[in-house]
Write a structure and sequence with these properties.
The complex is a heterodimer. In chain A, 72% of the residues lie in helices and 3% in strands. Chain A has 27 helices and two strands. The longest helix of chain A has 72 residues. Chain B is mainly α. The longest helix of chain B has 31 residues. The termini of chain B are far apart. The chains are: A mainly alpha, B mainly alpha. At the A-B interface, α27 of A face α1 of B.
Chain lengths: 698, 102
């Protein structure tokens, strides 16, 4: 497969979902139910092509950094704006992740959205969303990425607010969009700094220039700022603290949307972008990224423990796992950050779709019971679903085990790598808080995921509705089984306890930093590897070496913590040895703090939203009394002046005109008498004139 | 008292002024015509007087003769016009004869 073919195929892969969107959106009435089949089959073809591309890139050209194509868009002044597409190893794998999950979500939705009155439009939106996401994936420059970045924002807005009749859904879509825009603003400033300094948007050209020593404004702090600003885009899209608030609310969208957007694609875009620009992060920027990720992971995990809405628990779990990925990139564990992105995509999509399956079944039985008050998503209304929905339970359990980091799963491999990375980073840089937060969050993840599983699937049915649920049909089960299957370790590395020897880690070797040495951690800087060239165990930098040393420590610790957490979850909720309510009562302030999501929404409500409203009120006051006052004052003055000039005009100017008119009229009326038309009068006058002339002469 | 040139000229001037006065003040067209005759005759007296005292021999006489002939022709034409005016207006008041003006 040649480079050209690979690139042409990528363009086809990019455009197919757009085609799906265009076909469906303009033929909604005509297609009806068929739109689901059309969307799904187009995505199926897309998936096959992506697999071909990924195979071509990872097998044939694995060693090549990037296969890309650039073209000139336009020139302005002495700057040229180039666009282009590029396939590197990251993009190759992301293509599969995006198209596979999008395909499965399409398939799932044909059943889940069955009977919705805007059924075709849903598939059209899924199409445009997939198109925008693929655009981000195959962008080889910041400008392309930004364009599709915003398109993703738009299409997620459409999808989250799909049931816009519900106030909560339309508010959630607005919240998601606006919160994302805040991050995007930073992203845009970062892009502009990069363009100003390097005169190009291309990743490889920026890296080349930095490698040769060019940095923005010759200042390390500007370089750090550029990195952090670009990362701000990821803070918005990947729901990092403090912009994570949109993601849990976005659960108002249909559940397949949650699986598509909030598991694998949109939120992954931020991490993906951070991975793409990873080489240009300075030491300070990396520390910032690492702390953001670690704090987000910890905070979201503490909130996840107490939530009672099925999807909300998953939402906070997503935020927490995204924190893990961002933290991994921040500490320099590049490979495992991206690895976790991929493994998380599978098991989180599986969890979301399984939750969709449960909610779908609950809705059905509630509908049969004519019950419109019970919340179909509240885990306190579930229980015992293990017996009625065994296949859903099994896939859900497999994904839960994976996210909890139990051995023999994909989640274990990736999380273990990240934890080793944090330990190594803590060891080398002295930032010990990060590994502590990471391990605590990992333990809490295991706890709340098993809490969710036990409360909803184990025990006895807590309501009539839960008892009457039954298993869904194959369109819902197939995606679940495929995704759960992908949570098994074997797909990434044959060794179930160490991913570093698997193909995945080999394809995604850490990339060398391009930041000048004085602004970078010395353990991130590439080692002089000439002596070990060709050696099986050659490593890029000291951090990687340290990660290998810390590998077993991290594994032991994470196994211990996860095991304890799972045991605790069983003691609490399965065997009821410890009464959860009593424990919650004894630490009531902490419980409420977590249950109310750290009051972050309330803080934003009071500070930013309240502040904005206060500001608008002040501005309104200023507008009413000061601006309007000035305007009215000026108008009053002008009115007075107008009256005055009016008087002046009437009196003086008109007076003069009338006076001259009057003088002329008066003299005319006198002189008119001379013009009598009588010859005798004229004769008299001429005689008098003659006499006068003679008199004057003589 | 020796009758000299001045006496003639004075008589002539009185006649001229009387004629002028008549032309200006009279409303009747006949009277205006008669006043014009007075002016012409005052001019004739001047011609004759300057012929006698100015040493111009018969030149003045000839001019006076021309004036008399011209006055006769003029009176004939003017009287014809006045008759026509009378025929149209039943009066000869020149102030009211202004139909051509309108």
């Amino acid at each position: 497969m040649s480079h050209e073919l690979l690139l042409q195929l990528s363009i086809v892969v990019l455009l197919l979902p757009l085609l799906s969107f265009l076909i469906i959106i303009f033929n909604q009435k005509r297609l009806g139910k068929a739109s689901g089949i059309i969307g799904t089959s187009i995505l199926g073809i897309d998936l096959l092509l992506s697999a071909v591309i990924a195979y071509g890139k990872l097998v044939n050209y694995s060693e090549e950094t990037i296969i890309q194509w650039k073209f000139n868009w336009f020139s302005i002044g002495n700057r040229t704006i180039d666009l282009g597409i590029g396939i590197d190893n990251l993009a190759a794998v992301m293509l599969i992740v995006v198209t596979l999950i999008s395909f499965l979500v399409h398939l799932f939705s044909t059943e889940y959205m069955h009977g919705d009155k805007r059924f075709p439009r849903f598939f059209a939106y899924l199409g445009i969303f997939t198109f925008s996401m693929l655009g981000i994936v195959i962008a080889n420059n910041l400008l392309n990425m930004y364009i599709f970045w915003e398109l993703v924002g738009l299409s997620s807005y459409l999808l989250i607010g799909f049931w816009y009749e519900k106030d909560s859904a339309s508010n959630a879509s607005k919240k998601a969009f606006i919160t994302n825009r805040i991050g995007d603003f930073g992203f845009l400033i970062g892009i502009l700094i990069a363009f100003f300094a390097f005169n190009t948007f291309m990743f490889d050209e920026i890296f080349d220039q930095m490698r040769s020593g060019i940095i923005p404004f010759e200042s390390g702090s500007i370089l750090t700022a550029m990195g952090i600003l670009l990362f701000a885009g990821a803070i918005g899209k990947s729901a990092q603290f403090p912009l994570h608030v949109w993601l849990p609310d976005a659960m108002e969208g249909p559940t397949p949307v949650s699986a598509l957007i909030h598991a694998a694609t949109m939120v992954a875009a931020g991490v993906y972008m951070t991975a793409k620009i990873f080489p240009l992060f300075t030491a300070d920027a990396l520390t910032f990224v690492a702390y953001t990720g670690a704090f987000t992971a910890f905070m979201a995990a503490t909130i996840g423990i107490t939530q009672t809405d099925f999807k909300r628990v998953l939402a906070y779990s997503t935020v927490s796992q995204l924190g893990f990925m961002v933290m991994a990139l921040g500490v320099g564990a590049y490979t495992y950050g991206f690895f976790h992105l991929v493994t998380h995509a599978w098991f989180k999509a599986c969890l979301f779709l399984a939750s969709g399956s449960v909610i779908h079944a609950m809705h059905h039985s509630l509908h049969k019971l004519n019950d419109h008050h019970t919340d179909a998503q509240d885990i306190r209304n579930m229980g015992g679903l293990r017996k009625t929905m065994p296949k859903t339970y099994f896939t859900f359990l497999l994904a839960t085990v994976a996210i909890a980091g139990v051995p023999l799963t994909s989640g274990f491999l990736s999380k273990d790598g990240i934890l080793a990375g944090t330990l190594a980073f803590g060891n080398l840089s002295g930032h010990w808080i990060i590994p502590v937060l990471a391990f605590v969050s990992a333990g809490m993840t295991a706890f709340y995921m098993f809490r969710l599983t036990i409360l909803s699937f184990h025990g006895d049915a807590k309501t009539e509705a839960a008892k009457m649920t039954h298993e869904n049909n194959f369109q819902i089960l197939v995606p679940l089984i495929v995704l759960a299957g992908l949570s098994i370790w074997i797909f990434y590395s044959f060794n179930p306890i160490d991913a570093s020897s698997g193909w995945f880690a080999k394809s995604f070797k850490p990339v060398a930093t391009v930041v000048p040495a004085e602004y970078q951690f010395d353990f991130i800087l590439p080692l002089d590897n000439t002596a070990h060239n060709g050696d099986e165990h050659s490593v890029l930098n000291k951090l990687e070496e340290e990660m290998h040393h810390q590998h077993y420590t991290a594994m032991g610790l994470s196994l211990l913590i996860a095991g304890l957490a799972i045991l605790l979850a069983f003691l609490f909720y399965q065997f009821k040895k410890i009464n959860a309510d009593k424990v919650a009562d004894s630490i009531k302030p902490l419980y409420l703090f977590s249950y109310n999501k750290w009051y972050i929404d309330e803080i934003y409500q009071k500070s930013f939203i309240g502040g904005t409203i206060l500001l608008t009120k002040i501005m309104y006051w200023v507008d009413t009394y000061i601006i309007d006052g000035i305007v009215n004052g000026v108008s009053y003055i002008i009115r007075v002046l107008g009256t005055f000039t009016g008087k002046f005009d009437l009196g003086v100017v008109d007076g003069l005109v009338n006076l001259s008119g009057g003088v002329v009229g008066f003299s005319g009326s006198i002189l008119r008498k001379l013009q009598t038309g009588r010859v005798q009068t004229y004769l008299l006058l001429s005689v008098l004139g003659l006499i006068a002339v003679i008199w004057w002469i003589v | 008292m020796e009758i000299g040139l001045n006496h003639y000229l004075i008589v002539s001037a009185i006649l001229f002024v009387l004629g002028l006065f008549g032309i200006i003040t009279r409303k009747n067209a006949i009277m205006v015509l008669m006043s014009m005759e007075l002016i012409l005759n005052s001019a004739n007296i001047n011609f004759i007087a300057f012929a006698k005292y100015g040493g111009m021999n018969f030149d003045g006489h000839i001019a006076a003769m021309f004036v008399i002939v011209l006055a006769a022709a003029e009176v004939a034409v003017a009287l014809a016009i006045v008759l026509n005016i009378y025929h149209n207006f039943k009066h000869v008041n020149i102030d009211e004869v202004s139909s051509l003006k309108e």
